[in-house]
Amino acid sequence: MTIIEQQKLGKVLWSIADKLRGAMNADDFRDYMLSFLFLRYLSDNYEDAVKKELGSDYPDTPTDVMQKLKVNTPLQIWYDENPDDIADFEKQMRRKIHYVIDPQYLWKNIYELARTQSNDLLQTLQDGFKYIENESFESTFQGLFSEINLDSEKLGKSYTERNKKLCEIITRIADGITAFSNDSDTLGDAYEYLIGQFAAGSGKKAGEFYTPQQVSTILSKIVTLDSQDPTTGPKKRIDKVLDFACGSGSLLLNVRHQMNRDGRRGIGKIYGQEKNITTYNLARMNMLLHGVKDSEFEIFHGDTLLNDWDILNEMNPSKKIEFDAIVANPPFSYRWEPKEDLANDFRFRNYGIAPKSAADFAFLLHGFHFLREDGTMAIILPHGVLFRGGVEKNIRTKLLKDGNLDAVIGLPANLFFSTGIPVCILVLKKCRKSDDVLFINASEGYKKDKRQNRLREGENGEPNDIQKIVDTYQFRREEPRYSKRVSLERIEQEDFNLNITRYVSTAQAEEPIDLQKVNDELKEIARRSKEALDRHNEFLKELGLPPIAD
């Protein structure tokens, strides 16, 4: 499917959502809409695999016959005819695609219940969600649908009203997407589009779970370059990638996308952590919806700053887990309450504790601790981390003196739904070849959109702001008013202030003024003015009127 068709599908789904949600809060309706889209993908993907597995044994039953049998899926017919083979069949399906779905919970059955206005729809959905959470996968997906309250009065005051509303929502979704492909790339991209649209409607709350795709692409391209020799191009493989504030998982999926292109061998395993329960569930759905098997990712629900994930909270150095690539868009200037014992925490003890007013460096140091020696980390932060004093200056200074800060990239303002301020990307490494810091001032490379500014992508003859940033970073290019390599000595002269405009200013130099030329022009203007006045006075004299004084 082309990008245009994918965008069309996204717009169709958004139009359905916008019309159906009525008075319901956009965030609430998002959970219903995305969950049903997710169920549709799981079901269709499962049925395609079932057809391949059963081959000629897959029931080719006409629709009218199924209606007489009161079943809505061919797989239900097979289950009814082969009860003794179900266990072995499901074992085989788990081995091949890592999950199973009981026929009664497949999307086709759910859709038929909705289309025929069956009063059993709501109860079937509730049972189906519990089944998927607890029984579909070998690894538990407990709480995957915990934010979907099918008993909510927002759907209706009575069971009948709620059931009727769900019938309408599911029928409209099914009819809207019937003409589109059900492959993971198509539905995955539509899912991402909807997340972005819901984020736009959520204002500042959107920053909790959504990184604009264009910014995500910059980070993903940077961390997938060969760390030892960026000029050789992209890495062939990444063993582990981490996003410790993963939101809906779009950054991690973008890294995966980069690593599945151009003959590369992909990623060994994806790791993410998210504190917000709603977005944690979005991330897990998003992974599966993009075709990532449950064995290929691990998303943890917990507090990154407290480091409550067992696999990261390992004090034994021999068991320390490390990552080839780390990406993150943590909440900007997050207020936190660090306890005294955090001063001895292995992540912070060599640097200091970020202030209560802004946990930006706490997030950075958390991720940096788990970075491999030859890995790359790219993190989005507010500009304040570049120049604020106190303990933040101390942390910044140590990172610089240790040679860990590779690049500072300034982005345009108003790229994010969560804030209109300009933000920056810090690129960090534990083992660098360069002894300078690359500053990129990309603040002027964008175009205005309806709600947010957008980085240009080289369409219709426009510049490609994204690729220019990546290429400039990769080859450490210097360009007037755009990028510069700056030595540590120079940065030290600036008292370790990393404010980008100190090193790369976009201000245009004023043209030098030729004072002699200006003086001659003023003299000429004065002479011509006097001539005009004298001539005018002659006319006044002829008319018998008094002259105008000089």
How does this model look, in words?
It catalyses: a 2'-deoxyadenosine in DNA + S-adenosyl-L-methionine = an N(6)-methyl-2'-deoxyadenosine in DNA + S-adenosyl-L-homocysteine + H(+). This is site-specific DNA-methyltransferase (adenine-specific). Residues 183-511 form the DNA methylase adenine-specific domain. Keywords: Methyltransferase, Restriction system, S-adenosyl-L-methionine, Transferase. The protein has helices at residues 3-20, 26-54, 63-69, 74-81, 86-97, 107-115, 121-136, 159-177, 184-202, 213-223, 250-259, 277-289, 360-369, 384-387, 391-401, 465-475, 488-493, 515-542, and strands at 238-243, 267-274, 297-301, 323-328, 371-382, 405-410, 423-428, 436-441, 447-448, 453-454, 483-487. A nine-stranded mixed sheet has the order 3-2-1-4-5-7-6-8-11, with helices on both faces. A two-stranded antiparallel sheet has the order 9-10. 44% of the residues lie in helices and 12% in strands. It folds into three domains: 3-202, Up-down Bundle (Ferritin), CATH 1.20.1260; 209-502, Vaccinia Virus protein VP39 (Rossmann fold), CATH 3.40.50.150; 513-550, no CATH class. With 550 residues, it is α/β, with parallel strands linked by helices. The model is unreliable at 203-208 (pLDDT under 50). Helix 12 links the parallel strand 2 and strand 3 (297-301). The longest helix is centred in the first third of the chain and has 29 residues, at 26-54.
